[in-house]
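Notes from the pairing session

We agreed to fold both candidates in a single pass and log them together. This is the raw record for the first candidate, unedited. Please don't reformat it; downstream parsing expects exactly this layout.

Candidate A
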Amino acid sequence: MPKPLYILGLSHPYSWNTAAALLKDGQLIAFAEEERFLRLKHAPRSFPQKSMEYCLRTAGIELEDIDSIAIGMENWWQAILPNFWPLQPLRFTYGKIQRTVQEIRRGNELFPFSPHDKRVHFLNHHLCHIASSFYLSGFPKANVISLDGAGGGESGMLGWGEGLDLTIRQRVTNAGSWGALYERMTKALGFRPHSHEGKTMGLAAFGTPKPELFNFIDWSTPVPQIDHTKRNRFLRSLVHRKPGEELTQQHKDLAATVQDALERALLQMAKFLAKESGCKTLCMAGGVALNCSANGKLLQSEYVDDIYIQPASSDAGVALGAAVLQHVHMTSKRPGFLFDHAYWGPEYTNDEIEKVLKESKMPYKKVENVEEVTAGLLADGKIIGWFQGRMEVGPRALGNRSILADPSVKGIKDKVNAEVKHREMWRPFAPSMRHEDIGLYVEGPHQSPFMILAFEAKKDKVKEFAAAVHIDNTARVQGVTEEANPRYYKLISEFKKKTGRGVILNTSFNVAEEPLVCSPRDALRTFYCCGLDALVIGDFLLQK
C-alpha cells in the first residue's frame, strides 16, 4: 500500500485564535482550537501545541510522519511588504510594522520544528481563509469574501473560485480594514476587541443607525473604502465607555451604526462580485464572516442565491485552510470531503467519563434512553448541560458541548444569562431545530447547520421559542440533521413528541470569558460552579 499523505495545518502563533488541523489523503482527521486545551479564551499569540498533539494522537502518528506542514500566514517579510504598497507615510506605519515583524519572528521561534524545514510552507493568510470555505463548500463555482482585522499583508480579499482556480479581484488593505473598524467600535463601547464583537452585534438591535456619523467611508467606489485617517480622527472624538458603565442609547446607536455600515459594505461587495463573475453563489470566511446578522442580510439579498460560511472563520480556521490549500497545491485536487459539520474535536467513551465521575465522588446514574430522559427534563423547565460525542470547532456550540433549555418558558432567557452564563441580560440565545423544520419557524428557510445565519422569525411561532428570538425578531438558527448528529437530532425529536414544539434553546457550554468545555473534567467543573439543574454527559445523568 502507498504511504498516506499527511498534511498538518497550523495557525501562525502571531494569530489571535490558534488551532491545528490534520488531513490524511485529503480527508479531515481532526481539527481543534488551542483555547479548549489551554482553558484560555482564544489562546492568543500562542503556538497550537496541544491541538497539534491532539491531531497527531487521533491519527496515531508522530510529527516526523507528517509530509507537509502548512502555516496559515506568509513568512514575515511577505506578510509585511504589502503594507508599504500603496506606500503609506512612515509616520503612520513604521512603529506598527516594526512591532509586527518582531511578533512574527517571535512566533516562528515558538515552532517545535525549524521554520526552514523543507516540509514547512508559509501560505497567504486570506487565501487560507478562502480555501477553508470554497474548496469545502461543494460549490463548483462561487464568489469568495474573506475579511478580518488584519491577516499579514492585507485585511481581506474578494474574488471568485471555479474548480481549483481562485481569481482575486480586490484586496482590502490593513489600513482600510472592515474587521478593524468593528474591533475599534467594540473597544469604544467598552467591550474587549478581538473577543466581544458578538456583543456589539447583539447590542446593535437595540439602537438606530446614524450613518452620517461615519463620514470616513467612501461609498462611491464599487467596493466601499475606509479612509483610515478620517476614521482615526473620528475614533479620537469618541468618549470611550468604560467596562461596567451604563449602556446608554448613544452606545446602542453606535453599535447599530457600525453594524449597518458593515451590512451595507458586504451587500455592495456581493453586488460587485455578482456583476464581475456572473455568479450569485457566495462563500465566506475570516472573522467578519461570524457576523450572523450581516450573513442573514446577504442571503436574503438579490445578489446571493446560495451561501456557505465556514463555521470556524476566525484565525483558527486558517489551520484548516492552510492544510486544504496545501493539499490542492500538492495533488491538484480538492479534498475528498465537504465541511458540512463541525464535530472534529476530542470525544470520550462512557468508561472514560465514568472514571472521572467516580473520582469526583458526585452522585450520578446511568440512563437507558438519554435523549428521552433529557427531553423530559427540558419539558419540565430544567436547564441542562449537554456533553456528547466529538467537540465542535468554532465559537458556536452545535449540540455536543451545549447548554440547553426550553425557549418557551417565561423568564428562562434571563435565568440562563444571569445564573448560568454569568453575562449581560440583553445577550441573545439561538435555537436548534431539525433541518426539515426550519421553514416552520422562520421566513426564507435555508440550510443552516452552523448557527451562523440570522433569519426572520415567523410571527405566529415566536411564542414557541421566544427566548431564542432576538429583540429585532431574528433568530440564529441551527438546523440539525440525523446524519450529522444523530443523538442531538433524536433529543429534539423526543422534545417535540412531548411538547409539540420542535425548538430547543442552545448556547455554548461555558461561563463568561471561558472557552467551550472540552473534557469531562471541564464539564463537571462548569456544572458545579453555575446554575445548571442537570448534566447529561455520555449516558450519565447528574442532578443538583
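Candidate B (folded immediately after A)
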Amino acid sequence: MSDRRVVVTGLGLVCALGENTEQCWSAAVNGVTGIREVSSVNTEGCYANVGAEVLIPSEKLSGEDYDRSSLLCIKAAGEALEDAGYKITSENSDRIGVIMGNCVGGAVSIDKYYSEKKKGCENPHDIYRMTASALSNNVAFHYGMNGVTANIVNACAAGTISIAYAADLIRAGKADAFAAGGSDAFSSLAFAGFHALHALDADSCSPFNRSGGITLGEGAGVLIIESYESAKARGAEIYCEILGSGVSSDAHHITAPRPDGEGQMLAINRAVANSGLKPADLDYINAHGTGTAKNDEAEFLSLHTIFDENDHLSVSSTKSMTGHCLGAAGSIEAVLTVMAVKENIIPPTIGYAPENLETLKEKAGNIDFVPNTKREKTVNFAASNSFAFGGNNASVVFAKNPHEIPDRTNSEKIYVTGIGELIGKPNVEITSDDYKQHGIKMAFYRKLDRFSQLQLISGVRALADAGITVSDENARDIGIVIGTADGPLTEIVNFQKNVIENGTAGGSAFSFPNTVYNAAGGYLSIFAGIKGYNVTNANSIQAGLQSVCEAADVMRNGDAKVMIASGTDERTEITDYLYSLSKDKIELGEGSVALVLETESEADSRGAKKLAEVAGWACAHKAVEFGTLKGSESALEKAVNDAVSAAGITVSEVSAVCGFANGNPDVDTLEKDVLGNIFGNTPVYHIKDTIGEARAASGAAQAAQAARLLADSGNDYRYVLAASFGAGGAYSAVVFKRV
C-alpha cells in the first residue's frame, strides 16, 4: 500500500484570520471573524463595504517585486516548507514541484498599471505581473524548486484541484513532493465584479443561514504533499493522508450552480469512492458554503442526498470567518480541514442568531452544521469541497490514518482521434459559418468573449472530427483540459479599465464572468454537455502541450475515457505590448487547437479513426526568473528524455521533432542547442512561421502536427516528438507513435 500513500507534512496559511497557520487555526476554532470594513479598495457608491483582507502590506511580504498574489503565496509556501522540515538541495530540487490555484491572476497589478497609466506614470513591468502563469514559477524561483509546475485557474475550485492533481502526480511517480495550494489577492476587479452581479452580502456573509451573498477575502494556503516513502526517508512528521479526489462539470450555467446538485454530487461521490470509503464513513466536511442563496441551496441538497444516512457527520463553512478567497479558498479550507483531522476539532459556521437555530434544525436533518461553536470529536475522515464559476466542482478526502485506496490506473493505450483548429496570424477571423455549422446559436455565442469563442469552436470541431456525440450515457466520462499562457486578457483589461473610469460600483455584470480563466472551459462544457473532469492550466507558452500531458495523466489515472486537450490564446493590444517588452520582437498569432484523446477500448468501441498513439509524455521545470529562459536548458533536456523513456524507446528511434522556435534568438538558440545535442540530424519541423507565436495554441498545434505527420502515409515516420517551452523554465514533451 505504501506506493499509493500520499501524505501531508507541512502547512502554510495567511488570510484575514492571521499571519500563519497557528493564528488562523486558533481564530477559526474559536469563531473569530476576519471580516471587517474594506480598506484596500474604494467602495464609494457600493452597497457593500466589508471584506476579509490580510493586514500585511505587500512590501513586507517578500523582498521580490511581484504581484500581491505571488507574495502571499510565497509567504504561505515558506511556512509550509519550514513546518515540513523540507530542505531543498541540489539533489532533491527537481523532485519537488509547485502547483498553485488562482482565479484572475495578477489583478492588483492590473489595477495598478491602468490606474497609473491614466495618470501617465505607468510601470511597464506591471504587465509581467498580470498573468496567472507567473504564480507557481515565482514560488519555485524563490525557493529553488525545480519540479513540475502548474497554475490551476479554475476560479474558486482551483485550490482544491491543485491539491488533487499534485497527489495524483505523486502516485504516478512523477514527483516526490509538491508545494500545492492556492493564492488570490483582494482586488477592485473581483470586488467590482461580484458587486455588479449583486452577489455580495451587505453584512458579513452568513452561509447555510441568511445566505444573502458572499464576502470577499484574500490569502494563500499551501500544503507540502509527499509520497509516504519521501516523508519516511526524511523522518518527517505526518499530519494526515490524502486519499481520493473528484473533479466534475455542471454543464449548466457560467455563474450559477445546477439546482439539482448533479455536478457537485458527482465530484463528491467520486472523491469518496476513489478513497475506498462510503458516505457513512466521513466525520467532517469543510463545505464550499459561500453564503449565496443558490449555492447554499444546491449544496444543502447535495449533502442531504449523499449523507442523510450518516448519523455522525459535521459540516461547516469557514468562509463565515475567512471570507471567500477565490482561487485560494479551497487550499485555505484544506489547511483548516487537515488541522481538524489532526486536532479532532471542528471549526464552526458563525453568524447564527438564536432565532436562526430553529430554522437550521429543520433544514439540517442528521447533519450537524456546527453553528457558532466548535465541536470536539474524533475526525478519522474529512473532505473539503469547492465549487466554482464555469460549473467546476472539486472534492478531496483526508484521513487520520493509512487507508487502502483502490488503484484505478488504466494502462490502456491512448490515441488522438480528433483535431479541431482555429489558429493563425496576426488574428483569426471568426464568421457566422464557424458557429452555425456546429449548431451554436447566436443567443449563446454572443455571451462569450473572444477567448471563449476560440475555445468553443476548436473544441466542438475536435469532437466532430472524432465523431463523438456527447450524451447522457457518456457525458461523465468525457473531460477537458485547457492550457493558456495569458487567458482572457482582453476581457480582464477592459473590465478593469471600466472600473477605473467609472468606479468600483460601475463594474459590468455582463463581462465579469468572462474575466475568469476557466470561463472558456465552462462554456465548452455547457454547450457540449460535458460533465467530467474540467481543468484550465495557465502555464505560459507550453501550456497547450502540457494540456496533452495532463489529459493523458487524467486518463491513466482512470478519471476519464475521453479527454479534450486544448491550447488557447488570443492576440490583443495588451499581449502585443507584453511581448514587445523583449528587445527581440516575435510575430504573434492567436487561436485555439483542441485534440481529442481516447482510451483504446473507447476508440475501438466506436470504430474511431486513430491518428496517432500518445506513447510517452513528461513535464519538467528549472526555476529561472519569469520571462526568461537562460539557465533552464537542463529542464528541456529532462522533459524530452523523460518522454522518450516513458514511450519505451531511445532517442535514436524518434523520426522527427515538432519544435518551438519562434524567431526570438534566445528561444531559437536554446532549441537548436538542446534538441541538436539530443537528436543530432533528426528533422525538426517548425510551424510558427505560418501561425505566428500563438503561445498555448502553438503548443497544441505542434501536437496536432505530430499526429498528422504520423497519420500521413507519405512518410515512414514511426515516432514523432513535440516539445514546447514556457517563460520561467517550464517545458513539456510528448512522444506520438504511428498506429
